[in-house]
Design goal:
Helices cover 12% and strands 30% of the residues. The protein is an alpha+beta fold and 514 residues long. Strands 2, 3, 6, 7, 8, 9, 10, 11 and 12 form a nine-stranded mixed β-sheet that branches.
């Protein structure tokens, strides 16, 4: 069988100064926990909805490679088809690189999807903390409630099934339909769809999958239908295209606090890597530093497949843990945090491991912006930092932004640098003797332009909300900047390597000169 890898490109998005939220409050998105939300049941039943689901980044040319730009048949591993201006379909082993352009928005890392026939380019967030891929959908408009940060609450749709000749509604007998409805009983979706008992037992009901509600931990909700369509990627030659038929995704017409689509990179059957057949291989990304958020000329690489897990020199690997309660998340064991040369602050047991019910542990999540840690662990970190840092606090900014520690610091010549020694170092220690020293810009960040040779920097770690269920901590995307992160799913481990992601992007041709 041909081996493939997919290279994507990601872009960072901007809005660092907004008021931060609890761990599951992503800026415009959140990692989901899978659960049925009864509070919405009446609303959804009145609108014809069936159920509710919550779910708590230029390599050398490779003849057997598929490269997509990061900027879902019911079969789990759809066939890929290659065409070149109407020429005959080629074998997978003959596939060459594919690169897509990216656009930049605030709030996260985006990938470009090309969906439908003819293909339509759609920008969505890349999220390792959820499974469902969904896009704003509708013939006229897309409704987003409580999306005041965007121009208005009536956003233009980006995808319309009626304009795609290859679009199909997913059937209720699909395992994807069962998954999106969080059902342990495969008969449930077809029962909701009104199928007869005989077709239920035979698995032949032709009715479409009922509408779903997918909810996120911060309270975001998306309502839509499962749709299948062709996912198209573009190659290094503009005339070369690649097609993934029957890609399954959510066609979402209305949301609450979710203004932009999401590509789920979790471990469930609906996830993006799962549908492309790479869930047992892996992927890697290298998130650009936040200072590149407004630079449209640069994007950063996300690699899916063999190349992601074979180019692993100089990486430190920590084992992936499996929660029996939340098996679709990427859990790692945080053992301690070291600040400067002080004694390690040991992580509590509930952040290192699971309890008898599968709760606890730490997830790594590209869709959560800042790392969240529980008390009293988090408070111990704050206390030690306060005892070391002698610069004046900026309480007004702390109150306004919600960040816990903000300091007015010297900034000679009004030039901000991340490599100075004015602030203490922070090192995360994970299991298997992995020591990850964060770049200073990954935890203390300038909240504005320097003035009079001073600048205000705030600590971009946050307190985890108290709760008995779900993970006890989150390792967020802001702390993953300038770092190669490898999800080696074949060997059940995650690797880290500090890296200048901008230089890596340039070496892979992801920087435009003009």
């Amino acid at each position: 069988m041909s081996q493939l890898f997919i290279i994507y490109t990601l872009i960072t998005a901007n809005e660092i100064c907004s008021k931060p939220q609890p761990w599951d409050q992503k800026i415009a998105m959140s990692s989901p926990f899978t659960i049925t939300i009864s509070i919405f049941f009446l609303l959804f039943s009145l609108t014809g909805l069936g159920n509710a689901n919550q779910s708590f980044a230029k390599k050398p040319r490779n003849p057997s490679s598929l490269v997509l730009g990061l900027t879902h048949s019911r079969a789990l591993y759809p066939t890929l088809k290659i065409s070149n201006n109407g020429m005959s379909t080629e074998k997978l082993s003959e596939m060459s690189d594919v690169v897509e352009p990216l656009r930049e928005v605030r709030d996260g890392y985006l990938i470009s999807l090309n969906l439908g026939t003819p293909p339509k380019v759609i920008q969505v967030y890349m999220d390792t903390g959820s499974d469902l891929t969904w896009v704003p959908c509708g013939n006229i408009s897309f409704d987003c409630m409580d999306c005041d940060d965007y121009r208005n609450n009536k956003l233009m749709a980006t995808y319309s099934p009626s304009y795609s000749s290859s679009s199909l509604r997913e059937l209720c007998v699909s395992p994807f339909c069962t998954d999106v409805h969080s059902s342990d009983n495969s008969y449930d979706p077809c029962t909701i769809a009104g199928c007869s008992l005989s077709t239920l037992v035979k698995g032949t009901c032709p009715r479409p999958c009922p509408s779903f509600a997918y909810t996120y931990g911060a309270g975001g909700v998306v309502i839509g239908t499962l749709t299948r369509d062709t996912l198209t990627t573009h190659g290094s030659s503009p005339s070369l295209t690649r097609e993934v038929p029957n890609f399954c995704f959510g066609c979402v017409g209305s949301t609450f606090r979710e203004p932009i689509g999401i590509a789920g990179f979790g471990r469930g059957v609906l996830s993006f890597p799962s549908q492309l057949g790479f869930l047992h291989k892996g992927f890697s990304h290298c998130f650009l530093a936040f200072k590149f958020a407004n630079n449209p000329k640069i994007s950063s690489p996300l690699v899916i497949g063999d190349l992601a897990v074979t180019s692993i020199d100089n990486l430190q690997f920590t084992p992936l843990l499996k929660s029996p309660m939340y098996p679709n998340y990427y859990y790692i064991s945080l053992e301690a945090i070291v600040i400067d040369n002080a004694a390690p602050i040991p992580a509590p047991s509930r952040i290192r491991e699971f309890d008898l019910h599968g709760n606890g542990g730490t997830i790594i999540d590209s869709g959560t912006t800042y790392t969240h840690l529980p008390d009293p662990f988090y408070s111990q970190i704050l206390s030690l930092l306060e005892s070391i840092i002698t610069y004046p606090r900026v309480k007004e900014l702390e109150d306004r932004t919600g960040f816990d520690l903000c300091y007015k610091m010297p900034c000679p010549n009004n030039a901000i640098t991340d490599g100075d020694d004015l602030l203490p170092s922070i090192t995360f220690h994970f299991s298997n003797n992995v020591s990850l020293a964060l770049p200073q810009g990954n935890y203390f960040y300038a909240m504005g332009a320097p003035s009079n040779s001073t600048v205000v920097k705030c600590l971009l770690l946050q307190r985890m909300d108290d709760g008995e269920s779900g993970p006890a901590g989150v390792f967020g995307s802001f702390q993953q900047q300038n770092m190669k992160v490898v999800y080696d799913l074949e060997k059940e481990r995650i690797g880290f390597q500090p890296m200048d992601c901008a230089s890596a992007a340039a070496s892979q041709g992801l920087v435009r000169k003009t």
